[in-house]
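Tutorial handout. Part one gives the primary structure; part two gives the three-dimensional structure as tokens.
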Amino acid sequence: MESRKRQSHEWVAVAAREFTKMIRHLGLRSINHAANELGINYRTLKKLDDRHPDPTLTLEMVMSIWHALEVFAVIIQSSERPAEVSRMLSDSLMQISRSYSLNPRLQDAVEAIGSDRVGTKTGDR
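Part two.
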């Protein structure tokens, strides 16, 4: 159970690392600067501090923050390379998504399917 709890919060650390990488790429000097430019509450963005990620952050909030990053990068900042920034944002969301734990029942089902496939020979079907 402890392993699952720890694993369920790993995605927040991944999101915090990706957030730090994105704000630096966009020229935002700090979480405070990002909060001012994105119009998002500082305390909410502070949950993505890569030194102390806060597990109370929700995936929905991360999606909202990434949307604000994209708007900032493409529209407000008038990025010279909006496709590159959009790709970076998509890649970082994919990293977060891959680290996000499923509901324990779904995770158990996925693991069971995986172990069934490992033990099944193609001729057994």
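Part three, for discussion. The chain has a mean pLDDT of 81. DSSP finds six helices and no strands in the chain.
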